[in-house]
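Students often ask why inverse folding is considered easier than folding. One informal answer: many sequences map to the same fold, so there is more than one right answer. In these notes we will look at a single instance of the problem. The structure comes first.
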């Protein structure tokens, strides 16, 4: 708040390039909101796919191997039946750091 008060009495000049970037950001934000309203199912599918790919890759780095076809079931199911410790690891790691969609 004090930062804004410092600038309240002054006229600040914004470089032209910066103002173009700000205008572009505003335009893309509007497009994002439009897409979110028009295609929620497509965005949900893309979010799930990204979640699965991220889980497979990050767990592979740590040496945890789970069949990629099982990862979606392990992550999305409310109470999945785990086949082994690796599946529990995938679920536990994801749910400890992932935001709720």
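Output (designed amino acids):
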């Amino acid at each position: 708040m004090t930062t804004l008060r410092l600038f309240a009495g002054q006229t600040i000049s914004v470089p032209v390039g910066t103002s173009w970037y700000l205008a572009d950001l505003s335009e893309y934000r509007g497009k994002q909101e439009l897409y979110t309203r028009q295609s929620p199912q497509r965005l949900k599918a893309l979010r799930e796919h990204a979640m699965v790919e991220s889980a497979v890759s990050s767990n592979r780095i740590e040496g945890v191997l789970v069949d990629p076809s099982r990862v979606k079931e392990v992550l999305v199911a409310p109470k999945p039946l785990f086949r082994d410790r690796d599946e529990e690891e995938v679920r536990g790691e994801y749910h400890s750091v992932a935001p709720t969609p």
